[in-house]
Automatic annotation (TrEMBL):
The lineage of its organism: Bacteria, Pseudomonadati, Bacteroidota, Flavobacteriia, Flavobacteriales. InterPro entries: Beta-barrel_TonB_sf, CarboxyPept-like_regulatory. One of its GO terms (cellular component) is cell outer membrane. SUPFAM superfamilies: Carboxypeptidase regulatory domain-like, Porins. It comes from Chryseobacterium formosense. This is TonB-dependent receptor. It comes from the Bacteria. Keywords: Cell outer membrane, Membrane, Signal. Pfam families: CarboxypepD_reg. It is found in: Cell outer membrane. Residues 1-21 form the signal peptide.
Amino acid sequence: MIKKLSLISLFTLLPASYYYAQTTVYAYVKGQDGKPVERAEVDLEQSVDDVTADKIGYFQFVDLKPGHYLITVAKPNFESKIVEFDVTADEKRKDLGVIVLNNSLGSDAGVVVIDDSANDTEDGGSAMQPTVGLLSSGRDAFQNVSAFELGAYWFRPRGVDNRFEDVLFNGVSMSKNDDGRIDFSNWGGLNDVTRYPYENVDNITPSEYTFGNLGGVVYYNTRASSYRKQTSLAYSFTNRSYLHRAMATYSSGMSKNGWAFTVSGSRRWGDQAIIDGVYQDAYAYFASVEKKFSERHSINFTGFGSPTYRASNSPNTQEVYDIMGKDYNSYWGWQDGEKRNSRIRKVFEPMFMLTDYLKIGKNSNWTNTVSYQIGSDARSRLDWFRGKDPNPTYYRNLPSYGLVTADEFREKSQIDWTSLYSQNNNIPVETYTIGINPDGTPKTIKGKRAVYTLVEDVNRDKTFNFASHFDTRLKDNWKLNINFNYQNLKSDNFRRIKDLLGADFAFNRNAFNNDVQYNVDDPNFTVKVGDRTQYSYELTKNHYSLNISSEVDFNKFNIVASIFSSYSESQREGDYKSGILILQNNSKGKSAIYDALDAGLKGKVTYKINGKNFIVYNGAFFSLAPTLNELYINPRAVDYLTPGVKNQIINSNDLSYIMRGQILKLRLSGYYTTVSNSTEISRYYAVVADQTGSMNTLINEAMTGVDKRYIGAELGFDVKITPTLNATGVASIGEYKYTNRPDVYSFDDLNDFRSYGKANIKDYKVAGTPQKAFSFGLKYNSPKYWWVGASANYLMDQYLDFSALNKTASMYTDPGTNDTYAGASPELIQQLTAQTKFDDQFMLNANAGKSFLIGKYRMGISVSVNNILNNRNYVTGGFEQGRAANFPQLLEESQRETPHFGPKLWYDRGITFFTNVYLRF
């Protein structure tokens, strides 16, 4: 009886098991060059069990029931591909063949630093210097176009600048502690090894490796075995910031005995770029060595650096540009038949890392990195003692001042190095007492003191980092990430003599304040080449952070949550005791420790309408401690904290609709961000009035309690018109403005702190980027491996950065009577202080290229041209000068046909090109 029941059960179940036969589906992912694409993400729309392709590009799904399926295959810097297929009841294994991912536009992404000269000037506007930072290629059309087309014109998505971006190498943040910005020159020229980030998330999207900020996260994994086994040689010719670039890279792949090597080197050089007197010579090196002990354990050493020598270009007033043209640069002059630039940046800050990779069980990974970065960043400038300003564009040297004609200015429009040497040589030889000898006799020095010197402002940083990342799958659809970071910074900051320009020594005295000594503890007030002068101090900071994130994937929803907390301690230690009495007690020695606690949370919710359509929400709320530059209002002189400095509070939200079709890829997003309690510091030379009259002094200006709002919408699409012709379009419509009246303070050596009350800047626009931008492009990809493309770009709503002092009540208040100046009506004040808006601009770009496959050799050539129409009217950045800081002066300036203190501007460089040829095997 039992046997009969068993047979009946067996034959009854057979049809059902046959009907529900389950199938294994598999495929290989490869690139255009036929090589495997590892770690491509494969999303099965009908399941939560997504997979990742292995090292040979293989992936599979098991136990699929009969039906219609859709998968999306994606990897950063490749165009994602959607594959649809059917599984029938009679298939046990289904081969999808080879899925080819095309390289996305701009796969040769890297870093282009246009210039950073405003960071080493003291005439203001440091935040408004145009630079192109991280040119990273995202997965959608908007990110690609905003990086490579609009980004060439200093467009910043959502108005977010470098301060709010995060770049990590093996978990170690590359943001600088002094200003929070990323110095891309630390790995400039290493395009081959930084072309494909391990993770690239945009805006406030949560990251697996850090909490992130407003501007997204790029994570580089420099594991030697992660690089494709090949040799790559490349040469580039350009007129952007250098002329020539040569690169070579070799990756060995993993050997049988468990070793892998990747090395890369490059040089960028040239002295005939568009702007006069600009030249560059920069090397770069990279080495990664991995030892694999087992399938679960590897250790990797990474070392990289980019010694760079680069000349800067000056911002100029419109008067100067009208006379000299848009290529004019006031920072250089002729010496012995050669161009010599006074503003040279020499930076070399190599990084050394040791990373341990450990796999724990089936579902967990633990990665730990220790790193040490050391080096210096030196920026030169002319200095003078009891002499005239040698800047050719000093306002008294311009035709508007009435002493010279335009033709006379042209004759003396560059630095006169011969005159500087001559004036130093004309100083009589004198004997100076600089201390007491051990026998009690006066210690003296004899020679010619310098009127003019070339000095360098130097940062020597020593940074130790420890970064730990742990990830595990708690369930098939539930992932947990834990990140811990510790950083210790010791930053030595000083000014040193670089060149005495023919003199024997210089004075370490303050010529702007009765020749007081910068360091009264040292009786020797003379300095020679290599000696420190004027200021010397050390900043230290210890920073601890913990980040925990988790991702859960359901059939229709994907949910990510991320939280963090951090603690930091900062301190200043001065080496000089100032000769200015009001500063002496706070100039030398260790300051009190400033500690800061931060916390925040992020969330992301994705709703899968189907395999092609998604709704995505991102939200973030977090605090951000002040940087060292924000914390100390004038660290060169004293340890005073900036009045009212606080942690910033950031609240940001965005909502997107995303379509990933075979023909049309599209993203439409809206975003709303507020930044509260921020601090903005500017430093410049100004004329300031008080009850005793007026004074000329170097002003350290601070706005604290600043609130800003960023609101807007983004649209990006990529449509395949034909199998070989694509159209891309981008629209970014934003409004970035100040939403309150922050407090304004200043600090200078003569007057200590001064409070100016509130700045009337509510509804002023945030400067530094076009607030609206549009782009439309076409690209033809030939089946014969050549391509050509062009884009039309329109930029709108670019604004001039303002001087806060001019926007306070002190500007129109007579200090002698404390009443409003006569004639200072509200209407006139509003007219005088209105923010300048620049004209909208149209730019046209084009690019083309071809690749060749010759046996095992792959060769390619490409060329891109920006601003084909040579539009020289586009102002890429600028700032108001703060010299005219009271109503009578400002009114007089407004009535001049050519103001003495007009805004300083940078213009686009016109037609630029970049050509590249490579050979890989």
